[in-house]
Design a protein that fits this description.
The protein is mainly α. The protein is built from 14 helices and no strands. The longest helix is centred in the N-terminal third of the chain and has 39 residues. Its main location: membrane.
Length: 315
């Protein structure tokens, strides 16, 4: 049986069993998932923080070193798309629903319940923006960069399958084509599936709340399920149509709409204040970059770190 079919079958069976278990035993499933997440972030939270910091500084070093000039393909290959198109697809896939959900919600939540400042104060506003920049800034992209570069390098430079198992070839050798490689890909599929499910859940809550606010559709469980089905159908059609059609066009449309929204807020809102806040927030973010990269809150605010930063890096 081809490796792709084995991986698909095993991942599909595990995912189906998980969905059935959570559907029939929601209380127990929620308790088990909560205990599992709490156990992971309590014991390995420091490892998440350290890993993402290493990813970031490794990516910066790679970009500035001579290795940054290695072409991800044959020496004579040229990019299939321009920078703007690539940016649109990467941004839509990498941030998408998440940044639309948390782009406003996160700074407002930090402003109301900051870690170090008086709630609702100027210091809390600065802290809220700095924290949001940290969660959605360079670190998040560094995680994507390390995985993306590894896949591209071994897939297009060395002709290995474009799967996560190929990134472990220097460690596993030819064993990536056997059961161990299948296990790696199954875990990658499940991790991706649950990560997308999280994003979809946030997006449906946002869309459902917006439709309810406008009076178009009540925010009920049934309507949320219908929204999930509709969004999943559109996403499946987009993926099935390939990069040149659905993925590319939807991504470009997504970025155009995002730019239009930014322009509207910029023009209709307090323009000078927005510019000043942006410049100051970037400065605060860069100023605290190294400290935030290694902050594990070992002495205080441990629960905050578990539910925010460590949750993000795991997601």
């Amino acid at each position: 049986m081809p490796a792709s079919r084995i991986v698909f079958t095993v991942a599909a069976v595990v995912a189906t069993l998980f969905v059935l278990a959570t559907a029939f035993f929601p209380g127990r499933a929620a308790a088990l998932a909560g205990a599992l997440q709490d156990g992971i972030v309590t014991r390995f939270g420091w490892f998440y923080i350290l890993s993402v910091a290493i990813f970031l500084f490794f990516s910066l070093w790679l970009m500035l070193s001579r290795y940054g000039r290695i072409r991800l393909g044959d020496d004579e290959d040229e990019p299939d798309y321009g920078y703007l198109t690539w940016f649109a697809m990467l941004f839509a896939a990498g941030m998408g629903i998440g940044i639309m959900f948390y782009g406003v919600a996160e700074p407002m939540l930090h402003f109301g319940t900051p870690r170090f400042s008086e709630p609702g104060s100027i210091a809390a506003a600065k802290e809220a923006m700095e924290t949001t920049f940290f969660h959605w800034g360079l670190h998040a992209w560094a995680i994507y960069i390390v995985v993306g570069l590894s896949l591209a390098y071994f897939g297009y430079r060395h002709g290995l399958p474009l799967t996560v198992r190929s990134t472990l070839y220097p460690l596993l050798g030819e064993r990536i084509h056997g059961p161990l490689g299948h296990l790696v890909d199954v875990m990658a599929v499940l991790g991706t599936l649950f990560g997308i499910a999280t994003s979809l859940g946030f997006g449906v809550l946002q869309v459902g709340s917006g439709l309810a606010f406008l009076g178009w559709l009540p925010a009920t469980t049934t309507n949320h399920v219908l929204l999930i089905a509709g969004i999943t159908a559109v996403t499946t059609l987009s993926a099935a149509s390939g990069l040149d059609r659905g993925v590319r066009r939807l991504s470009e449309l997504n970025v155009l709409l995002a730019v239009a929204l930014v322009c509207f807020v910029f023009i209709a809102g307090p323009t000078v204040f927005l510019l000043s806040t942006f410049v100051e927030s970037v400065g605060l973010y860069l100023q605290e970059l190294v400290l935030n990269s290694f902050r594990t809150t070992a002495f205080r605010h441990a629960e905050w770190q578990k539910t925010w930063t460590m949750f993000y890096w795991g997601w």
